[in-house]
Amino acid sequence: MKERIWSLVSELVWRMRRGPCLAVLTLHRVGPNQPIRPDAVARMFAYLRRHFRMMLPSQWTEALSEPSAMITIDDGHEDAHEIIYPLARREGVPLVICVPTDYFLRDRWLWFDRLNWAIAQCAGKAQVRVGGETFSPDHRPSVVAFKMHVKSLPPADRDGIVAELLGIVGREPPTVMPKEYRPVPREAMRGMLATGTVELCAHSVTHPVMTRLDDAALREELTRGRAELEAFSGRPVVAFCYPHGQSGTFDDRTQAAVAQAGYRVAFTSVPGVNRPGSTDPLRLKRVHVHPRLSMLTRELAGLGGWRRRRAGAE
Ligand SMILES: [Zn+2]
């Protein structure tokens, strides 16, 4: 009942506030065993197609004249091709796939997937102590807090903790990634790009926290990540997606480097909808896809900030 009321309120507010905007949706993993299931994605795509003009980064213009939306998929795991793409084709919506090139082009494990793999090997242990931190592998909030801590560290310290944890596990992740960790196969990506309904977005080379890099490493991640995708696809890559993306993972220095590298738009993970006049194209906000469509429509109607503040106060 509460859900139904929120859907109606969101719909009403949406109609009242309807105007030029850019909503950028964020998807990561989708699957029957993931928090975001295929049927939730199908409902979201149908909703977006009804209410927004769907865009790709190459069509970006600051002179937005109507409610517009992009759908971004971060990292490019195989489900982007196997699950999300068929749903997008069915609903006629375009997709932006953000891929780190070490992962996509060289089949190297994403650092956080190595961490996820190591944590999965610890299942059944009551507690694990690593890098001065303790977490409970079977307790999701504890694992989430541990992963947030590891993510906040400079790359060398972060990799040190992952190595220490792998030492505790007693083995390295397999060289050939298990299916659940694999990127979209390159031939499959070529096929999707050829339809013109999918664009690649640069997402660095190694998926670091950009603010943790020195100037030279920052430049390398921005320019090589882009050049390698352009060489792969034969098309210009105009968008950059900040790895991790929350506030603190980008700043004025990283933004200047993004501009200097020639990107026209950059996506963060700061929640919100972008409106003309108050939108910086190199710091675009995004809306995380939620398992419940009513939560998503609330964000799109601009009621998400109120919900988050209320949740924070509770
Ligand atoms: Zn990512």
Sketch the topology as an H/E string, one letter per element.
Answer: HEHEEHEHHEEHHHEHEHEEHH
Alpha-carbon Rg, integer = 20 Å
Q: Can you identify the CATH class of the largest domain?
A: Alpha Beta
Mean pLDDT across residues: 90
The CATH architecture of the largest domain comes to Alpha-Beta Barrel
Q: Give a list of the ligands.
A: zinc ion
Number of helices: 12
Number of spatially distinct domains: 2
CATH superfamily of the largest domain: Glycoside hydrolase/deacetylase
Structure commentary:
The structure is a single chain. The chain has 314 residues and is α/β, with parallel strands linked by helices. The chain folds into 2 domains: 238 residues, TIM Barrel (Alpha-Beta Barrel); 59 residues, no CATH class. 45% of the residues lie in helices and 15% in strands. It is built from 12 helices and 10 strands. Strands 1, 2, 3, 4, 7, 8, 9 and 10 form an 8-stranded parallel beta sheet that branches. Strands 5-6 form a two-stranded antiparallel sheet. Helix 1 runs parallel beside helix 11 and helix 5 packs parallel to helix 7. The longest helix has 19 residues. Bound molecules: zinc ion. Zinc ion binds next to loops.
SSE map:
Blueprint: H1 2-17, E1 21-27, H2 38-51, E2 53-54, E3 67-74, H3 79-91, E4 95-99, H4 101-106, H5 111-121, E5 128-130, E6 133-135, H6 140-151, H7 155-169, H8 186-194, E7 198-202, H9 215-233, E8 239-241, H10 252-260, E9 265-271, E10 284-288, H11 293-300, H12 304-313
Parallel strand pairs: 1-3, 1-10, 2-3, 3-4, 4-7, 8-9, 9-10
Antiparallel strand pairs: 5-6
This protein binds zinc ion.
Zinc ion is lined by residues 74-75, 203, 207, 243.
